[in-house]
Write a structure and sequence with these properties.
The chain is an alpha/beta fold. Helix content is 38%, strand content 24%. It has ten helices and eleven strands. Mean pLDDT is 86; it is low at 1-5, 104-115 and 237-250.
């Protein structure tokens, strides 16, 4: 098992500083990305999706909150032209509103317990040949779940993804992460927490990244400062000693 982990292929995130820190995202595994509004979760997710598609991996960006047009506009603001990737099928956007319309007839008259199965049904809508899934975000599918139901549904979804050897980046908002933190961290292969905080040395607001865990990976314990620039998310220099340490979780 140790040897397998050492030789596991990793996918570039599209962020050179992050790839140097963690070696990339383990292929065929699920990575959580969580953080407050404005921390850059969608920027990171789009950047990863673009990088995977540019590498020739068929990538699906499943959005449950923003429509595809808004995501394309956001990509354009970073000078990312996604049109060639969409045209040749390497990148596809899938909106939850489209899935909901497809399921409306089937959902009429069924009970709440059946409707809770949507978390796993998201995976079943992925076409054969999909290599990478970016799910932004799962938070819209957790409102009616208790902790055991979340654990069961989340574990089943990850099992389905693993069976198809799909690498997944799953975005949570901070509220969902606080509710289901322990279960999500237990089942996911890795987790990244994007934070906005006041730098204790400069008194200035800054964004920092906490690599909470990645199995089989020596992760940095210090918080990693980053910026959202004209060309996307970029890591800066490491925080000064004492500026912060990796937390137990989001």
């Amino acid at each position: 098992m140790t040897a397998a982990k050492r030789t596991m292929r990793r996918l570039p995130t599209g962020i050179p500083g992050l790839d140097r820190a963690i070696g990339g995202i383990p292929e065929g595994r699920a990575m959580l990305v969580t953080g407050d509004a404005g921390a850059g979760k969608t920027v990171l997710a789009l950047q990863f999706a673009r990088e995977c598609a540019m590498s020739g991996l068929r990538t699906v960006y499943l959005s449950t909150e923003e429509d595809a047009g808004d995501l394309r506009v956001q990509a354009t603001s970073f000078f990312w032209d996604l049109r060639p990737l969409e045209t040749d099928g390497r990148l596809g956007f899938l909106e939850f509103s489209e899935l909901r319309a497809q399921e409306t007839a089937a959902s009429v008259g069924i009970g709440l317990e059946n409707r809770k199965a949507r978390m796993t049904e998201l995976v079943e809508h992925l076409k054969e040949g999909t290599r990478v899934l970016v799910l932004d975000s799962l938070s819209t599918h957790t409102a009616n779940l208790d902790h055991q139901e979340f654990r069961d549904q989340f574990d089943l979804m990850l099992t389905k993804l693993r069976a198809r050897d799909i690498t997944a980046m799953i975005v949570f908002d901070s509220a969902t992460s606080k509710r289901f933190n322990q279960a999500a961290l237990y089942h996911a292969y890795g987790a990244i927490w994007l934070q906005r905080r006041e730098n204790p040395f400069t008194g200035q607001r800054e964004r920092v990244m906490d690599i909470v865990k990645i199995r089989g990976t020596k992760t940095p314990i210090q918080l990693l400062p980053y910026e959202i620039t004209r060309t996307g998310l970029e890591l800066g220099v490491a925080s000064p000693p004492g500026a912060g340490t990796a937390s137990a979780g989001p």
